[in-house]
Design goal:
The complex is a heterodimer of chains A (398) and B (296). With 398 residues, chain A is of the alpha/beta class. Chain A contains 18 helices and 16 strands. In chain A, strand 14, helix 17 and strand 15 form a beta-alpha-beta unit. Classes of the chains: A alpha/beta (398), B mainly alpha (296). The structure holds adenosine-5'-triphosphate (ATP) and magnesium ion.
Chain lengths: 398, 296
Amino acid sequence: MQSGKIVVQNLFKVFGEHPQQAIDMLKQGKSKEQILAETGSVIGVSDVSFSVEEGEIFVLMGLSGSGKSTLIRLINRLIEPSAGDVYIDGQNVARLPQSQLIDLRRRDMSMVFQSFALMPSRSVLDNASFGLEIAGMGRGERHRRAMEVLEQVGLASFAHKYPHELSGGMQQRVGLARALAVNPSMIIMDEAFSALDPLKRREMQDVLLDLQKKHRRTIIFVSHDIEEAIRIGTRIGIMEGGRLVQVGTPRELIENPADDYVRNFFDTVDTSRYLTAGHLKADSVPLYVHNGKAPDTHKVCRELQAMDKHYAFIIDEQKNFRGSISLERVALLLEEGRHPRLEQDLLKQIDPVPEDLPLEKVIERLVVNEGPIPVIDGRGRYAGAISKGRLLSRLQGE
Amino acid sequence: MSEKLDLGSWVNDVVQHLLDNYSGAFDSVGQVVSGFSEAIEKLLLLPPAWLLISLFVALGLWRIGAKFAVFTAASFVLIVLTGFWEQTVVTLGLTFSATLISLLLGVPLGIWAARSERVAMITRPVLDFMQTMPAFVYLIPAAMLFGLGRVPGIIATVIFAMPPAVRLTSLGIRQVNKELVEAGQSFGCTSRQLLFKVQLPSALPSIMAGVNQTIMMALSMVIIASMVGAGGLGNDVLASIQRLDIGLGFESGMAVVLLAIILDRITESFGTRRAATSKSLFGRLFCKLQRPQSAP
Ligand SMILES: Nc1ncnc2c1ncn2[C@@H]1O[C@H](COP(=O)(O)OP(=O)(O)OP(=O)(O)O)[C@@H](O)[C@H]1O
Ligand SMILES: [Mg+2]
């Protein structure tokens, strides 16, 4: 079995009279539409498997009706699965008896809704402490705890107001506070910020990211806003017609979309913003290895001229970057009749950039640097080079 | 005419059968209803007229506003001056008794119908039947089973006035925002917690609309029920018809109308609570009195 905070295995949800029949037809490769026409059953979720790591924000995306809401409701079992398993911390939620399920919901998971779903007749404080009240906590203690989370979301001074007196953004802060008050290790959020205007939405994303910094929780977040998904998602899962078609980090999905359906999601996104040095690097600069003995200057000079290259990089045997040489300078010194020694006269130190340096920072470096800049991987070893020409052609290719 | 389908005699037989075999049961139901309604009537007649009137005026001031309070006071004074106060209180008592019984039966039935598709399927046609049958028709079997007096009147009224309580309770619960119910479930509500902490509070405006309709229907039926001797203003209305006494008809009829308006407006205001409380001075005062205890 896969490991992870949440592990979903071969999960199906069929809305209709005979789920097993529909599942069998799915397994025979029949389409959702065929099954609907033949049996009247609607496929909500079809053979979905994935896992979510502890502390991750896992974003589910997909067109309307692709099964996102159904899938997350199968995870806390607001909807009964037709087949398959959902493990949370190794416990199979799909097979849990009702009493244990209620216990798990009270103790360790909560949910935030698109329509906020606040109780209109309860004050903000009583809404925020709802989960604690359900779990049987006394009034004083639950109000004290709810007050703490209201402070975290910046609503402490509104504790005695009623939901209808608050703006949408503030109402969803209450929704978030209610979810946080029970101190769950996982939160399910169904289009939690979709009803907010773009500014408020960004603000709430910041609130969420901020809260995650203080206390990492596992979050499954449904969104139809790709910018939002990229911004908050550790990984993104793309759904189509009840199936989970691809899962990956935002960068993985941008770089290697599984099909046109996935690619279309990123069409409107200025993906260059998510490019890093790692994407831009190439083997465009000739490499010479300094193995205790410097490479011969004349040879380097000849070879660079033959390749029509202006720069070369020197690395050592452990692939540590040592410096860069410019053909121009070699040629100048040779012309003056001197015999330049590589290390003393030629080698120019440049700070290598890490692979995850974002595009804008790479550009800053290229502007101040004359030649190409070296890129190193996570272990500090040379991984490639970025030149101005390379950058421009890569951006144009986007 | 001999081949006419004789449904009527069949109903007669059923009632006769009930009477022959279960009269004990009907008697005890009758006793309970009678005791209950008498207690309510006594309670209403206990305070002097001005106190009861002040109570209604205060309620009107709190729920609706000063203008309505003045209207309430004027109406009751008019009723007292025309000499119909006592009958009005009797009618009020009958209406309250019938309403309370209707709600006691109707609200739980409505909750059940909201939670079970099968119960909903069975209750719907029964309620339609209860509501559309001309109101007097209930009086005959009620009088046969329970004798004459207030008891058959109240029972017939309950049958006539209960449907909206059932219907609007059920509707109110079914119409609770789906995500609100999911919120309750996702935080671990048991089905009882879901009912009392999420569904009923959210359905309250609809339930109160049902209460309002039940009261209004009960009031109208209680007047008709004077035909079986239920008493109250209905007696005067009935007498005015029998004697073709237009003056008496107008006076007693007006007392009914005024009572109806007052009950209607006050119960209606409970369905739209927040709007009403923030409007009136009394309401704001009331809120202030409530507020401090919830502060930490
Ligand atoms: N209770 C239900 N009964 C029947 N079909 C349902 C039910 N709930 C969902 N469906 C169907 O299941 C499919 C998936 O619905 P779901 O609500 O999960 O989609 P979604 O991805 O959340 O869409 P949206 O972006 O519109 O919220 C849809 O075809 C929908 O019509
Ligand atoms: Mg949805």
